[in-house]
Specification:
Blueprint lengths: L1 H15 L9 H13 L4 E4 L2 E5 L9 E7 L18 E2 L2 E3 L3 H19 L7 E7 L10 H4 L6 E6 L7 E5 L1 E10 L3 E2 L8 H14 L13 E8 L6 E2 L2 E10 L5 H11 L3 E4 L7 E2 L5 H8 L4 E4 L12 E3 L14 E3 H16 L3
Parallel strand pairs: 3-6, 3-7, 7-17, 8-16
Antiparallel strand pairs: 1-2, 2-6, 4-5, 5-18, 8-15, 9-13, 9-14, 10-12, 11-13
Helix pairs in contact: 1-3, 1-8, 3-8
Length: 351
C-alpha cells in the first residue's frame, strides 16, 4: 500500500509539471501512458483519453468505470507560486491541477493497479483518464464511451473530501438580448433597453420550479453578466445578459428549457442542453456499500464528467472542491494517502 501511495504522489508531481490546459492535454496523455507501461499495463489512447482494462477481464461480466480527468484550467493571475513547480510545503502539494483533479486521478490509477492482476473479480474494471473535462469538450469522455463495453456504473474522481456525491446539478447557460432604440441621452426615450431589462430581471428573479430534490434542493437561476452601451451620452440599441441555470435531478434540461423559452419576455437561447443533472438510486449497490462504510453522501452543485454519461455514477475523491481553480491550488499529501485505501475498501464491498 505504501508503494502505491508513493507512486501516486510521484506521478501527480510529474503531471503538475506538465502543461495540460483543456483541449491541449497531449503531453499528460503521453505521461499517463508511460506510467501504465512502466507498471506493465496495456493502455489505449483515443484523442487525449487514456484507458485500460484489468488483466483478467471477462466480457461476460459487468464493467465498473473508474474515471477522472487530467486536463486543467489556465492559472489565474493570483498565483504567488509557479503553478507548474509541484512544491511540497507544510504537508501540502501545490500546483495547477493538484486538487482538481490530479489527486483523484492518481489515486484511482493506484487503485486500478492494485486490482489489475487479481483474478475472479465479480466486475471488470476500466480506468479512464479523460480529457477536456474543464471545457466540456467534444473530445473528452463522451467521445470515448462509445468505444468501451457497456458500463454498469462509474466512480468519478473529483475533489469531494471523500464524501460521496449521489446527485449532481446540471447546467444550462442562456444568452438573452433586450432590444430597444438607440438615441441621444439628452432626449426622452421610451424604448431604453436598460430600463426594459428591469422587468426581465424581475421575471428571472421570480422564476420558480416546483420540484425539489432531496440532495440538490430547487433549480437555481442566476444572472451572471449584463452588458450594454459604450458611451455615457448614448442610449444603446440593445442589452445582453447571461443567465446561469443549475438544474436539479427532478428535471431534464429539455424540460427546463422548454418552459424558459416559452415564457421568456425577451430573446433567449441556450448555449447547450448537453450538461444534464444526474443522480443514483438510494438502493444502488455502491450507495449501499458507502452506507456500510459510513461514507457521507451529499448533492454536488458543481459539474463533472457525470454530465456527459448516461449510466449510473457517483462522484468521490480526495481534495476539496473549494480549492479548485484557485490561486496556489494544493492538495494535502494525507488526502491522497487516505483516499487510496478508502477507494479499495469501497470496491472490496463490490468485487
Amino acid at each position: 500500500m505504501n508503494e502505491l501511495k508513493l507512486k501516486s504522489i510521484e506521478l501527480l508531481k510529474k503531471l503538475i509539471q506538465t502543461e495540460s490546459f483543456s483541449t491541449k492535454e497531449d503531453k499528460t496523455a503521453e505521461l499517463i501512458q508511460k506510467w501504465f507501461k512502466k507498471n506493465n499495463i496495456v493502455s489505449q489512447k483515443f484523442n487525449n483519453n487514456i484507458y485500460a482494462f484489468n488483466k483478467y477481464h471477462d466480457s461476460k461480466k459487468p464493467y465498473i468505470l473508474l474515471n477522472s480527468h487530467h486536463d486543467t484550467v489556465r492559472p489565474n493571475s493570483g498565483y504567488t507560486l509557479n503553478p507548474f513547480d509541484s512544491i511540497i510545503k507544510d504537508k501540502k502539494l501545490f500546483g495547477l491541477g493538484s486538487n482538481d483533479a490530479g489527486g483523484a486521478l492518481v489515486s484511482l490509477m493506484a487503485v486500478f493497479l492494485h486490482y489489475y492482476n487479481k483474478k475472479n473479480l465479480k466486475y471488470n474494471l476500466i480506468i479512464l483518464a479523460s480529457a477536456e473535462e474543464e471545457s466540456s469538450g467534444d473530445n473528452g469522455i463522451a467521445s470515448v464511451i462509445p468505444k468501451l463495453p457497456k458500463i454498469s456504473f462509474a466512480i468519478i474522481g473529483e475533489p469531494t473530501l471523500m464524501k460521496m456525491a449521489v446527485a449532481e446539478r446540471g447546467l444550462i447557460v442562456y444568452d438573452l438580448k433586450v432590444n430597444g432604440t438607440a438615441s441621444h441621452a439628452a432626449h426622452k426615450n421610451n424604448d431604453n433597453p436598460i430600463i426594459k431589462s428591469i422587468n426581465i430581471l424581475k421575471w428571472i428573479n421570480d422564476l420558480s420550479f416546483d420540484k425539489e430534490s432531496t440532495f440538490l434542493g430547487k433549480v437555481k437561476t442566476t444572472v451572471t453578466q449584463i452588458n450594454a452601451g459604450d458611451q455615457h451620452n448614448v442610449v444603446p440599441s440593445n442589452l445582453n445578459m447571461v443567465l446561469d441555470v443549475r438544474v436539479n435531478d427532478c428535471y431534464t434540461n429539455k424540460e427546463i428549457n422548454d418552459y424558459i423559452v416559452k415564457n421568456s419576455p425577451c430573446y433567449i437561447k441556450a448555449r447547450s442542453l448537453n450538461l444534464n443533472s444526474s443522480s443514483i438510486d438510494s438502493d444502488h449497490e455502491i450507495v449501499l456499500a458507502a452506507n456500510k462504510l459510513n461514507i457521507e453522501k451529499y448533492g454536488s452543485p458543481t459539474l463533472s464528467d457525470q454530465s456527459k454519461i448516461s449510466f449510473p455514477s457517483v462522484k468521490i475523491g480526495p481534495g476539496d472542491s473549494k480549492r479548485s481553480h484557485t490561486a496556489d491550488e494544493f492538495i494535502y499529501i494525507k488526502e491522497i494517502e487516505e483516499a487510496i485505501p478508502k477507494y479499495i475498501k469501497l470496491l472490496n464491498e463490490l468485487l
